Amino acid sequence: MIRQLVKLCWNRKRSQALVAVEVFFSFLVVFAVMTVAVYNVHNYRQPLGFDYRDVLNVNLTSISDVAAGGQKAVTGEVARRLLGEVAGLEAVSEVAGTAVPAFDLTGMSDLVEHRGRRLESYNTEVTDDFAGVMRVEVTQGRWFEAADDVLPYDPVLINQRLKRDLFGSEDPIGGNIAPQPDPPAAGQAAGAPPREMRVVGVFQDFREDGELSGPEPYFFKRTRLSGEHATPLYNLVVRVRPGTPASFEETLMTRLRATLPGSTFQVDPLAKMRRSLMRLKLVPFVAGAMVAAFMLIMVALGMVGVLWQSVARRRREIGLRRALGATARGVSLQVLGELLAVTTAGLLLGAALGVQLPLMGVIAWIGNGVYATAMALSALTIYVLTVLAALYPSWLATQVQPAEALHDE
Amino acid sequence: MLRNYLKVAFKVLLRRRFYTFISLFGIAFTLVVLTVCAAFLDHVFGAHAPETRAFRTRGVYMIYTANATTARTMTFPGYALLDRHVRTLPGTERVSLFTFQEKVVTYQDGVRIEAYRKYTDGDFWQIMDFSFLEGGPFTTKDDEERNRVAVINATTRQRFFGDQAAVGRTVEIDGERFRVVGVVEDVSYLRLTPFADVWLPIGTIKNEVYRTAYLGNFMAAILAPRAKDLPRIAEEYRSALARIESPDPARFTMVSGGIDTPFGQLSRMLFSQKLAENQSSRLLGWLLGTAFVFMLLPTVNLVNISVSRILERASEIGVRKAFGASSRTLVGQFLVENLVLTLVGGLVGFLLALLAIEAINGSGLFPYARFILNLRVFLYGLLLTLFFSVLSGVYPAWKMSRLSPVDALKGALR
User: Fold this and answer.
1) Please, what is the angle between helix B280-312 and helix B375-401, to 10°?
2) Does A160 touch chain B (CB under 8 A)?
3) What is the DSSP letter of B185?
4) How far apart are alpha carbons B340 and B348 in whole angstroms?
5) Count of CB atoms within 10 A of residue B327's CB?
6) Is A329 or B314 the better-scoring residue by pLDDT?
7) Residues B397/B330, Cβ–Cβ less than 8 Å
8) CB atoms within 10 A of CB A312
9) 3-class DSSP state for residue B216?
């Protein structure tokens, strides 16, 4: 049966080739959209690792301060006073500081290394109360504490992904992840080893770029609020009591300005920042998907047209088959089967091209599972489309009356 | 004759409604996507008000810094670098420094008002061609004397003052009061250089440190007397950068970069391997290539439909041949038919594109953006569709018209 169909198609390869080419291009379009969609859905279902509801983000570093060539130093005593003033407000339940705001496209990335394994990891620097405000879940070891001020090393917490990438099955607690300097070139003295960054705990995750971001290694460093190595605050995260009205933002702003006159503050609810980031990431995808959908409709209609014409032209052939005892079902299956054979040819071509990308390692970050799912879903979409396009023409073919068709001559 | 052709064409198209619909759908859809994309690019990069002097204006947007140990990093230049090395470039007509916009929040009577703030100097208003609804720009003197004056856009005026005039009244921006001296029409969020809601003099920046910073958050716009002076100014800029002595060798020792249009800047960011030249032509090539690949699928579809349509009408051609129609007449008929089809498709596409652009403008996706349909791009797209539809419709018809009437009647085109 299948050999028959392939032979039939081969006999009319010139007109069939055009359909196959059409299927090939459609597959590429569907596949591109599908990959992004599957990737996003996959990411969306992973845990975010923190709770953004009822949290306000206060940005302390206005761009015009950055323009001033350096960060304004909200450090040491000033930082402690600012945190204290905000914590004193009635609607505030907890407050902490972080270097990188969540749901914002900025990020810090640094090299980490353990036993020669070296990689780049996103990170942020946070105060001791951060885990409480953001509800970050520590799964192993401990969170930062005030006594860490006097440690001879920098304590860090790493997420599960970084633990897996850097330590494998080894216990990470107590491990040093500071990058080691390259061996000195000949004739140069070796540089001093960098300050140790010792892992004190592991947390579930902290996906600061929102639900649609891919899995990334991540770690927390600690902001020092006192001592001579005090580090600056860049953002405050303020957890307010549930039910606090939006007008609290103004109260908070007034308090901030009274504490640090002459500074620029920007207060945004994290929920709002999350919405705008989501929109920013989804708008291009939705636009692309809409264009792809219209293209598919166009291709499906085109296939209906081509099949219709081919049925009309082959009335005699179909009439002959019916006269020789073929059933209506057999005839409609032939029409459908021929189209499926041509579609498969186009799909194989497309899949052969699609497989090249993971083979060349271009898109390793997507993950093979996501890629395979997307490919299967795209092939399925194209097949469904093909069957839909063949429905009407194959019904037409069953309506051919053998006597009439053979008489046409 | 032509009238007859047209009559026949319309009759045929109406009789085969399904084919007509598919072809029109394909043509219109392709044209809509191409036109909307072109409208977007034109809106972001075209020479529109207030950048009417774009042909002789270039910008310093980003610079690359590096030292012996760190790799090249891309940052905004600081005020001091631009003030000392760009304002002093020989052969320019004017140079303006300005910051990247930043969002500031004001609460007025319990209502949160967000506005994008940009700091600029007096020359900014001479290089840009803003249309003022009220009042006028602030001046270099305002900037030097650190006067608290502001130019705001129409939307910000609406937010702060409702429908009343704003000039002479004060607005609170980021906790400080500014006297409004001018109100301009809204400028699109997508225009890198002019966009803001509120423009303030650089002199009013609270923190004074920016005056000595080499890296930071400033950009510059350079206006040349004539467009042909630009290459020389670019050369001067490059050698000026090469002569810079770093005030902080720990952070950087070398600075490089070039003067660009916003499009050139984008291409530099996308393909930043080579620093000497921006990659505008390469980016343009990529865009045209994408458009071409995008057009492949609709084109194959159109060719498919056209070929099917002609084959279906083999017997019609046979009959006409049998009654003595020449090949030329037949080809003429199909040519007219395809022209009519494509032009109707173009018209539908034009109307749909207008609707799509109106929808995007109304969606508020990009603040203050008003996309405009670019007629030239639309016509290029139409010409391309015409070419393919004629090729796919007329060529099989011509081939069939050369057959003997008997074969054509049998539909014997192989």
Assistant:
1) 40
2) no
3) -
4) 12
5) 15
6) A329
7) yes
8) 16
9) strand
Cα separation of the two ends of chain B: 31
ipTM of the complex: 0.76
Task: Decide if A290 touches B, using CB distance below 8 A.
Answer: no
DSSP secondary structure string, B254-291?
A: EEE---B-HHHHHHHHHSTT--SS--HHHHHHHHHHHH
Segment A224-241, tens digit of pLDDT: 888 777 788 889 999 999
A313 to chain B: which residues are within 8 Å by CB? 311-312, 411
Nearest in space to B221 (alpha carbons), one of B230, B208, B211: B230
Q: Would you place residue A156 in the very low, low, confident or very high pLDDT band (cuts 50, 70, 90)?
A: very high
Q: What is the mean pLDDT of residues A204-230?
A: 88
Residue with tokens 């599957």: A38
* Interchain pair A298, B22: CB under 8 A: yes
Torsion angles phi and psi, residue B220, rounded to 5: -135, 150
E strand spans, A152-195: 154-159
What pLDDT is stored for residue B243 in this prediction?
87
DSSP codes, A234-287: -EEEEEEPTT--TTHHHHHHHHHHHHSTT---EEEEHHHHHHHHHHHHHHHHHH
* One-letter amino acid of A91: A
List CB contacts (< 8 A) between A295 and chain B. Answer: 29, 297-298
What is chain B's alpha carbon radius of gyration, rounded to the nearest angstrom? 30
Tell me which amino acid residue B408 is.
A
Render pLDDT for B295-331 as a digit per residue (tens, 0 to 9): 777 877 877 777 777 777 777 778 888 888 888 888 8
Mutate to test the interface with A, among B102, B113, B312 (most CBs of A within 10 A): B102
Residue B202 has pLDDT above 80, yes or no: yes
State whether residue A67 sits within 8 Å of chain B by CB.
yes
Q: Which of residues 91-150 of A touch B (CB under 8 A)?
A: none
Strand partners, B108: B111
Characterize the bridge pairing of strands B170-173 and B176-184.
Answer: antiparallel
Dihedral angle sign, alpha carbons of residues A321, A326, A329, A335: negative
